[in-house]
Specification:
By secondary structure, the chain is of the alpha+beta class. Helix content is 69%, strand content 12%.
Length: 390
């Protein structure tokens, strides 16, 4: 009841932090629900590991030289008993199937978590971009007012006045475009969370993220690696099950004999079912062994691919770290100084509008490039986390 109340409150206020959004997505997403049901299905099948053949109810009539054509009539029931080894092998296989389903479920949860995080990162990027555009909008509005004053005094022509106003309008249009992107992300986030409508995420300005090289040791225990290793265990269980088919099984029967003279005698029978087509069974065992070798090779290949992907992502992280460090050391100061000088010189009439726009665009380009590099760095970190998290 508390959980339902919590979810209802979230839907009413539709303001979600990233952590709360992830929890809600993992609760509502159909892919997560499907993976959980698959685990339960395999666990349920484990209870049916013993493979019982249908019981055979039979009637047998035997001629007798003294009692005639229908001298002896037998009515009985026969049952083949499952091999204990085959039952154990089947139970182990269902256990491995449940582990595969659990591993795939973890991978599904990691992917959904990544999707939510990426949306929040994009919203943070757009939020920071909006803040920058607001600063530029304020700057161009002040400049447009200066241009209008200069035009009234006759110090500037009409083309300069209109150019300044056009530049200010361009910034406002860009802000409007960013606003549409934010609204679209909110709708996508609402669909991902299973709320059916737009949500209002709690978004902070874009922050620097990093990935520790110490986390690379988690690669072999990641959700992706766990799926591959569980498939190896499943292949081994299949091989063990094929080997168990070569074992004999027991059958038993109970029956009653009715003689033509009216006498009735009970009877019983015990037998051993021995597989005779052993060559065929051996080929199935060999094929299962090859399947195990294939699964092991695919597991090693999965680890190799993850290591290659990680190396590429670590290189990308290093590249963006260098660019961001340059901005922090020089770009930030340069951008601020360009904007300050451009506005001051235009106000004092020491520079014309063309020089102001050139300097303002250069400063805006530095800031936009920084935001883009920071955003791409954070996406790279999210990708690194996705291939290492369990």
């Amino acid at each position: 009841m508390l959980l339902l109340g919590f979810v209802g409150a979230l839907q009413a206020q539709t303001i979600l932090s990233e952590k709360a959004a992830i929890a809600l997505a993992l609760q509502n997403h159909p892919a997560v629900q499907a993976s959980e049901l698959e685990v339960k299905r395999q666990q349920t099948l484990r209870g049916a590991a013993a493979s019982w053949d249908p019981a055979q109810i039979y009637q047998n009539t035997t001629a007798d030289p003294d009692l005639g054509m229908f001298g002896t009539v037998a009515l009985g029931i026969q049952q083949n008993f499952p091999s204990a080894r085959q039952t154990a092998a089947t139970r182990a296989r269902f256990d491995r199937l449940a582990q595969v389903a659990q591993a795939r479920g973890k991978l599904t949860r990691r992917e959904i978590t990544r999707q939510v995080r990426e949306i929040y990162q994009h919203l943070s990027y757009l939020n920071s971009k909006t803040m920058l555009l607001n600063r530029l909008d304020s700057l161009y509005n002040r400049t447009a007012a200066m241009g209008a004053e200069r035009y009234q005094r006759g110090d500037a022509d009409l083309a300069e006045k209109l150019s300044i106003e056009n530049q200010a309008q361009r910034i406002r249009l860009e802000k409007e475009t960013v606003g549409h992107e934010i609204a679209f992300d909110q709708v996508v986030l609402g669909q991902l969370l299973g709320l059916g409508g737009s949500v209002q995420p709690l978004v902070e300005p874009l922050q620097y993220r990093s990935f520790s090289l110490a986390d690379t040791a988690l690669l072999s225990r990641s959700a992706r690696a766990l799926v591959s290793s569980s498939l190896v265990d499943l292949a081994r269980a299949d091989e063990y099950m094929e080997r168990s088919k070569k074992r004999p099984t027991i059958s038993a029967a109970a029956y009653g004999q009715y003689l033509a003279n009216g006498l009735v005698y009970p009877g019983w029978q015990v037998g051993v079912n021995v597989p005779l087509a052993r060559k065929s069974l051996q080929k199935q065992v060999e094929a299962a062994a090859l399947a195990t070798n294939t699964a092991e090779a695919e597991y090693r290949n999965q680890l190799l691919n993850q290591a290659s992907e990680m190396a590429h992502l670590l290189h990308e992280q290093e590249k963006y770290d260098i660019l961001i460090a340059y901005y922090n050391e020089k770009g930030r100061v340069l951008s601020a100084e360009l904007l300050r000088n451009a506005e001051l010189n235009y106000r004092l009439g020491e520079r014309d509008y063309t020089d102001f726009v050139r300097a303002a665009n250069q400063a805006a380009g530095i800031e936009m490039e920084y935001l883009e590099n920071l955003y791409q760095l954070n996406l790279t970190v999210l990708a690194l986390q996705a291939i290492t998290e369990q």
